[in-house]
Design goal:
By secondary structure, the chain is of the alpha/beta class. Helix content is about 30%, strand content about 25%. The chain is built from 10 helices and 15 strands. The strands form 3 sheets. Strands 3, 4, 5, 6, 7, 14 and 15 form a 7-stranded mixed beta sheet that branches.
């Protein structure tokens, strides 16, 4: 099979090279999936550059966290799937390949109505957003959530989830046109970053109370503002560091307002937790995709042999939604 591999030429920078590699064989409780589409994530680019290694036990040479495809072979103890079934999911690495193996309980049946390219745009964004808002943040029906930025892939998924589950959302971005797209996805209150102090605007919208949950992908200098946007006993869930720098933590504010700060990653979770999240998706989110209440946002589709160009397009930051490699 073909796979994109990270190689470093003598005296050069790491790069993606398309190679022939052995086709993996599934273990007793694993599936081999014939990959049809791969969702591209910034983590893939970081891994190519040597800044985001996979967890121990995962081949570091083949990147890729998100896939959709068809079950090709199953282990002797597999019960949930059989050859021909359509599945999608997250893996700790190895998705930039024509085939991969994954534990059967970590794979998710593709919701009816989604094609394989659309399915590849679902797992990372929607699993991350759901876990951050509802499992880590504890967002409840009717509560306010602030999403920063609301125009990233995870942000757009979060906007849809808050809308579907009866919450109210505020979302920030530096790009007004993208904020308008987020409004079309269900964002209640767009907050352009250049219109004044964010905490003051958030409190005006929320009648002086603040939000129950902040979903933060910015980190860095945004940290202090995020804490100031929280209501008493609110939760800040940090899942990224798109902005440089660090910020001081005001322990007095944290203690006095009984705030919670949660850090979260998806890739480094133990297998048991990854399986738990996948099963929650199948139970709680699959019906919403099948009813058309949630939808993936595919920005552009690249042929599999154009992965380096797809990475360049992601770095150019002109897309809104997911970039996908199609096999």
């Amino acid at each position: 099979m073909r796979a994109w591999m990270i190689e470093t030429p003598a005296g050069g920078e790491p790069q993606l090279v398309l190679r022939e590699v052995p086709t993996p064989e599934p273990g007793p409780t694993e599936l081999r999936v014939r990959v049809a589409a791969v969702g591209i994530n910034r983590a893939d680019i970081l891994q190519v550059r040597g800044h985001y290694p996979p967890p121990p036990g995962v081949d570091p040479r083949i990147p890729g966290l998100e896939y959709a495809g068809t079950v090709e072979a199953v282990g002797e103890r597999v019960q949930l799937y059989r050859p021909g079934d359509r599945v999608m999911g997250l893996v700790a690495g190895g998705a930039y390949a024509e085939a991969l193996v994954t534990p059967e309980r970590e794979a998710i049946a593709i919701p009816a109505g989604l094609d394989l390219v659309q399915a590849a745009a679902v797992p990372e964004d929607f699993l991350t957003a759901y876990r951050a808002l509802y499992l880590e943040g504890g967002l409840a029906h009717g509560q306010w959530a602030l999403i920063r930025p609301a125009t990233a892939g995870v942000g757009l998924a979060a906007v849809q989830l808050v809308h579907v589950f009866g919450g109210r959302s505020l979302g920030s971005s530096r790009d007004r046109a993208r904020l308008e797209a987020a409004v079309r996805c269900g964002l209640d209150v767009p907050l352009p970053e250049d219109e004044g102090a964010l905490p003051e605007r958030v409190r005006r919208v929320t009648a002086g109370e603040g939000v129950a949950v902040v979903l933060d992908m910015l980190g860095g200098a945004a940290f202090a503002d995020n804490l100031a946007c929280l209501r008493v006993e609110g939760t800040l869930v940090v899942i990224g560091r798109l902005t440089p720098g660090n910020a001081e933590l005001d322990l007095g504010a944290v203690l006095g307002r009984r705030l919670r700060i949660r850090g979260m990653t998806m890739r480094a979770q133990p297998l048991e937790e990854r399986i738990r999240i996948a099963r929650l998706f199948a139970d709680r989110l699959t019906p919403l995709f099948e009813r058309g209440l949630l939808r993936p946002l595919v920005s552009a589709v690249h042929p599999f042999d154009q992965a380096p160009q797809a990475h360049a397009d992601m770095l150019a930051n002109r897309h809104l939604g997911k970039l996908v490699l199609a096999l």
